[in-house]
Structure formats: structure tokens, C-alpha cells
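Hey,
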Amino acid sequence: MRIPPLPADQWDDTVDAALKGMLPRWRRNPENASTVLSTLVQHPALTQAYLSFNVYILFNSTLSGRLRELMILRIATLADCAYEVSHHRALGKDAGLTEEEIEAAIRGEGRSVSDRIALAAVDELENSSRISDGTWSELSEHFDEKQRMDLVFTAGSYRMLATAINSFDIQLEDER
């Protein structure tokens, strides 16, 4: 790994402060933290800023957890981020996705029209950093303005995280 996880004995008050916006069960828990979180806390100020935004995406977005997970699986696949794909397979199942839906999302396919349009938007964002007018118009038939905004920011947030994971060479927990 280019940036290793912060060792448990170095998790201090600055790490606690960086993690304060997360759910209490995830705070200051180096033994059970993911390698992503353990690596990000090497830079507490950045971690605090990013997690504040990410907590919104995960828990307060206007998108359903199911759709969010479909999108994350697709963006992680397009970014060639095995770590995100692995973690979001499990989170997708927790959000109600079947194995077939997970595999379809990875391929960019959805079971409903709204799923397919959202995944097409993810592909466009990855390919050109823009949703085309035609896809935007189709999204508008299924998602309100706030949902469309959350869709763009969800894809961007998880693309950014995939970039960090890949660049820092963060390994899956069982590969450490």
C-alpha cells in the first residue's frame, strides 16, 4: 500500500475529531475499522471534511439506498476499484439488491426504466463528466430536481473515493 492504515496505537483525539460526524459505533474503533477509514485518518482534517459529505450521501440523500448502491457498484466497476465493488456488494444486499441485480448493475444494466436511466447517467458522468440533454430529460421523468442533484453528487463522491483507493493502493481487509 502506498499509504498504510494508521496503526491502532496512533488513533488519538484528532482522529476522534475527524470521525465525530460518523455513527458512534464507527468512532475510534481501529480494530474494526475498514482499511479505507484507517488509511484516510492518516489525514484527519481531510477525513473530517470528506466524511461530512459522505455521511449525507449515505444517510440523508433523497435517493433510495437501493439506487445509491446500484450507482456505486457501477461507478466502482468503471473506475476498476475492486475494494469498492467488494464492499458495496454486501451493502447492496443490505439495501435489498439481489445477486442478479448486483451483477446487472456492474454491467450497467438495470431492471427498471429508472434504474437503467440512472446507470446510463453514471456512465455518461464517467465518460464525459456531464449528463447529456437526452439522459437528463429522461432522468427528469423519474427523479425530481433534488434527486437528480443527489445522483450527480453520489456518482462524483464515489468516483473520487475510488480514485483515492486506487491511488493509495488500499487493500481489502483480508488482503492486509
